[in-house]
User: What shape does this take?
Amino acid sequence: MKKVITENERLQLLGLLTLARQHRIIISHSEEAMAVIMNEEFQNLDWLSDAIYDDSTTIDEVLKNMDVRVKG
Assistant: This one.
């Protein structure tokens, strides 16, 4: 690991950290909204939680795995 960085690298790290923190807030709000839709604590919605970080999982796969059907 570097022990000395440039001011430009410090600013890059600051920007990335700020962006990551903002996205964490957005994820938290999204989780709260999903919990409201499913009428369940988000901690109990493992399939949805996992799908946030697995780009290959579709919402239809999530719902099937959760044994949730969609009515027309």
Notes: The chain is about 65% helix and 0% strand.
